[in-house]
Design a protein that fits this description.
heterotrimer; A mainly alpha; B mainly alpha; C alpha+beta; A: mainly alpha; MetI-like fold; 76% helix; disordered C terminus; B: mainly alpha; 2 domains; 0% strand
Chain lengths: 254, 265, 463
């Protein structure tokens, strides 16, 4: 047997457990409860003020979260990738470690911390908690691009008369944009689709889009739930196209 | 001066990132029912955890067992499936390779909720009874891509001639596989296993949607249910502290080893 | 030394990867005990040939014989050959001893015998006492020795070597060449050696097989391929040379660089265009007027260690390279002559570009995957199969690929004394040949155009 055929079992597995499920979202989204084709689930979303409101809030929170993560994460990634400022490779490992700890537990602990300091739960705490949860996902891809960047670009710019500040803005920042794009993808979509976390961080005051998908599925409104999931998939598709895929970032995580 | 400011910035972020984890760890050494109230130092919660003397202990212990069982089985299967797939993928070219790489990335691009919902619909569609098996299959589906991505670089680094060299020296293809190929892929397979294992431990959303109604609880779903009821079981604090330490050691181990290997190259 | 008995025969062997033909009808025999080198630039098919012999690839057509028996069905692990791989391919998870013992252990050789044989072969490659070293801790040269030992310990009938010295630096490479030659003499087995380094091939081999574009260009001893190259590719690839357009006036009389010379070649007909090769060390300086065949002005003179390398412009406007032990000052006028023995005349492979095409309409012809304007062709209608000839110097090369009707890449170039002769590979994989005064480099992307009046179209007879 040819060695390239070794991927056949996995290809079949992916077909059943990745492709078919995604197709089923489409199928269920376009069906009513008795299995007939309908667009009602989709149109329902656009007339459901509750869902639309949640959607708007989710996008807003996600944009804010993404921006804050870039503002906080870019300098951190830059410092970590700078050999003069940071000699230890372990620091970056410490930064990404929290990513691997149960997000629910971390979120609950954060909520308790707010409680201990008497900070009322709401939009502010939600954003804080989200930034806290997703900051490592922004830092790491940027760090990776910066770390692998050929130093001679910066040296060449300096040689041609650029000040360190100009080097940063004209060379380093443009060349690190793929890392920022990966970071955006890894922060933005998961924020929109979060469920459970937003409830705990706001004491159920603010729901995000993931929560209403979950509520519909859990109350057996599969078709409407699937329609909402389909809308998310479309947004994922669009943002993936804009940011050029998060593959590199995921690969970089390993 | 610049260096000092940079260091300060890094340390402030680090403190913020670790504050909740440290918070949990600190309050695992006191008996208070809620976090944030210090009732004096005590290792009672640890004792309770290990002796099983606590409120609702059986369900927490069952949840831990389920979590470990699911993580071990799914990570082992992922490692096997992913390694074989990576060898196949490495030897593919053109459109097939691009298509499979794309498919392999989907589980990583999809947010948990989408993965969870889509798999939920799959099991409904197939009339597949949801329980351990559906959860394990789901975990394999998001764990395997990480194994593939850990093994592929090892295949790429490997001198492609070593396999042929083994054949040249008289090894049959299967001898060459076991004596030459697998030993060189092993570090990637182990990294992939650990990643798949950690992803499984950490998962909440996918398990939540695919566990069915047989009352299967993993640590995540247990915590979720606990928190919704209001008030976390205090013994979760020492448990989380321990899990955090284990993951810390595992991941430091992988990363330090990787950094060393990169340096030696 | 080599006997007359063939150990390997390749008969009509062809191999393609996808659409690309890597080997085209290779016929070759290798004698027992011979040191044969497959020599050619990268992509010429030499490594593919070696891998076919080793059994890692199977030929699409033709057969490979070992001692007269077809071995196509035999997998590599059952063939009595061992290979020294490019970049060594030592097993990184095994130490030196286990690397070398790998093949013997698989064949369940008793461990005392393994011990003995490993020690013996380590001594042969001067690596005694390295048994326990990690292979990653060895230098390139040491890894090379272990790779050779690992192959030789199995006592193969043929040792296959795939550019084994390519990764080593120059000094070490020279030393290893001598050692390999010694080993070959000592062991008496057949060596098949692949390299792109012509000097290495000349130093090591009993027989050199020069390959290019999947075809064998010439087979011969080192002196044969150096002194009597059969075509301009071989002449250019092996050693330094002046390759010039010439005309065979009659037997033993040839004209090139605007002068006539006596030579020793016969059988090229009369007034036929030929290629002429003169090695730079074969052009002599003289003071005597009666010996002088032509004069030239020295343009540059560079010291190269043993000799000086000079470029001169002849009185007829050609540039020649000359190597001599004496230096002549720049701008001085010198008298030169060439011995008849040192003039190598070669048949021209082609004298103009010939394409097969089809008329699109009266003033357009389709060929090479494009449509080209031509002058109105009387007696030809759309759909007629035609042959199109274009002179080498009538092909227009453009700086930008998109400006041309065709796009291509400079694939090979030859300086012919007063102009360059380029081989262009089009995007569709067709070759065309161009004479130009402009300077191009290998790998340059070019656009290609023809002027309508330069297409000579004739009807092609369907056979």
């Amino acid at each position: 047997m040819k060695r390239s055929h070794w991927s056949i079992p996995y290809a079949i597995f992916l077909g059943v457990f990745v492709v078919l499920p995604l197709l089923l979202i489409l199928v269920y989204a376009l069906q009513d409860g008795s299995g007939h084709f309908t667009l009602a689930n989709i149109t329902r979303f656009f007339s459901d003020s509750d869902a639309l409101g949640t959607f708007a809030v989710s996008i807003e929170v996600a944009i804010e979260n993404t921006l804050i993560c870039i503002l906080l994460g870019y300098p951190a990634a830059w410092i970590l990738a700078n050999k003069e400022l940071n000699r230890s490779a372990v620091t970056i490992v410490l930064f990404i470690l929290p990513m691997w700890i149960n997000a629910l537990m971390r979120t609950l602990a954060t909520a308790e911390l707010f409680g201990m300091f008497g900070i009322p739960l709401g939009k502010g705490t939600l954003l804080f908690g989200m930034v806290y949860d997703y900051l490592p996902f922004m830092i790491y891809p940027i760090y990776n691009v910066l770390n692998k960047m050929d130093k001679s670009y910066a040296e060449a710019a300096q040689d041609l008369g650029a000040t360190p500040w100009k080097v940063f803005w004209k060379v380093t920042v443009p060349l690190s944009m793929p890392g920022v794009a990966s970071g955006v993808l890894m922060v933005f979509m998961p924020t929109v689709s979060t469920f459970a976390i937003s409830e705990f961080l706001t004491n159920n005051k603010i729901k995000l889009f993931g929560t209403i998908i979950q509520e519909n599925i859990n109350s057996s409104m599969w078709n409407y739930g699937a329609a909402l999931a389909l809308i998310m998939l479309v947004i994922i598709g669009i943002s993936t196209m804009f940011t050029g895929g998060r593959k590199e970032a995921e690969e970089a995580l390993i | 001066m610049k260096k000092f400011l940079a260091q300060c910035y890094i340390w402030i972020l680090m403190v913020l990132l670790y504050a909740p984890l440290v918070f949990i760890a600190v309050f695992s050494f006191t008996e208070g029912k809620v976090m944030g109230r210090w009732n004096g130092f005590s290792t009672r919660l640890y004792q309770n955890l290990f002796t099983g003397q606590m409120q609702g202990s059986s369900s927490l212990i069952a949840a831990v067992e389920n979590t470990l069982l699911i993580a071990l089985v799914s990570a082992a299967v992922s490692m096997l499936l992913g390694t074989i797939a990576a060898i196949g993928l490495h030897n593919m070219s053109g459109r097939g390779r691009r298509a499979l790489t794309f498919l392999n990335n989907i589980p990583m691009i999809n947010p948990d909720v989408i993965t969870g919902v889509s798999l939920f619909l799959l099991f409904i569609f197939l009339h597949f009874t949801q329980g351990y098996l559906s959860v394990i299959l789901s975990h394999i589906s998001f764990g395997t891509p990480y194994v593939v991505l850990s093994v592929l670089p090892k295949l790429r680094q490997m001198n492609p001639n070593t396999y042929e060299a083994a054949l040249d020296l008289g090894a049959t293809p299967s001898q060459a596989l076991w004596k030459v190929l697998i030993p060189q892929l092993r570090p990637g397979m182990i990294s992939g296993f650990i990643l798949a294992f950690t992803m499984s431990l950490d998962d909440f959303a996918v398990t939540f949607f695919t566990r069915g109604t047989i009352g299967l609880e993993t640590l995540s779903t247990y915590i979720y249910a606990d928190a919704r009821k209001g008030g976390l079981t205090p013994e979760l604090r020492p448990l989380m502290t321990l899990i955090f330490l284990i993951i810390l050691v595992l991941l430091l181990f992988i990363n330090v080893r990787q950094a060393k290997m990169q340096k030696s190259e | 030394m080599a006997s007359d008995e063939h150990i390997i025969d390749l008969k009509g062997v062809s191999k393609s990867f996808g659409d690309k033909k890597i080997l085209d009808n290779i016929n070759l025999y290798i004698r027992k005990g011979e040191f044969v080198t497959l020599l050619g630039p990268s992509g010429c098919g030499k490594t593919t040939t070696l891998r076919l012999i080793a059994g890692f690839l199977a030929p699409d057509e033709g057969e490979i014989l070992l001692d007269g028996k077809d071995i196509s069905g035999i997998p590599p692990y059952k063939r009595p050959f061992n290979t020294v791989f490019q970049r060594y391919a030592l097993f990184p998870h095994l130490d030196v001893y286990d690397n070398i013992a790998f093949g013997l252990k698989l064949r369940k050789v008793p461990s005392e015998e393994i011990d003995q044989r490993v020690r013996k072969v380590l001594k042969l490659v001067s690596m005694t006492d390295y048994e326990e070293r990690d292979v990653d801790s060895l230098s390139g040269g040491q890894q090379q020795r272990v790779a050779i030992a690992r192959a030789l310990v199995n006592q193969p009938e043929i040792l296959l070597l795939d550019e084994p010295l390519a990764a080593l630096d120059l000094k070490l490479r020279k030393d290893m060449q001598i050692e390999l030659k010694e080993m070959h003499r000592e062991l008496g087995i057949t060596f098949i050696y692949v390299t792109h380094d012509q000097e290495e091939a000349l130093t090591l081999s009993d027989t050199i097989v020069v390959m290019d574009e999947g075809r064998i260009q010439q087979i011969g001893t080192p002196t044969e391929v150096y002194n009597e190259p059969v075509n301009s590719f071989v002449a250019d690839f092996i050693g330094e040379s002046n390759i010039l357009n010439g005309t065979m006036i009659r037997d033993r009389r040839v004209s090139f660089i605007g002068h006539e010379f006596d030579c020793v070649d016969e059988g090229f007909g009369e007034n036929n265009p030929v290629d002429v090769v003169v090695r730079p060390e074969d052009i002599y300086f003289t003071k005597k007027e009666e010996k002088t065949q032509f004069t030239a002005t020295v343009r540059s003179c560079t010291f190269k260690g043993v000799h000086y390398e000079m470029y001169v412009d002849t009185d007829t406007g050609y540039e020649l390279m000359i190597q001599d032990y004496d230096a002549y000052p720049v701008d001085s006028v010198v008298r030169l002559y060439i011995d008849p023995d040192d003039i190598q005349v070669m048949r021209k492979e082609r004298t103009c570009n010939t394409f097969e095409g089809e008329m699109a309409d009266e003033t357009h012809v389709e060929m090479l995957g494009g449509t080209f304007e031509c002058l109105p062709q009387a007696g030809l209608k759309a759909g007629d199969k035609v042959r199109v000839e274009v002179a080498f110097d009538k092909v227009d090369l453009l700086d930008h690929q998109e400006e041309g009707e065709l796009a291509g890449e400079v694939h090979f170039l030859l300086y012919k004394g007063d102009h360059y002769h380029l081989t262009i590979l089009t995007e569709d994989g067709d070759h065309l040949w161009v004479d130009t005064d402009d300077i191009w480099d290998k790998g340059d992307l070019v656009g290609i155009n023809f002027a309508p009046e330069d297409l000579k179209i004739s009807k092609r007879n369907e056979a």
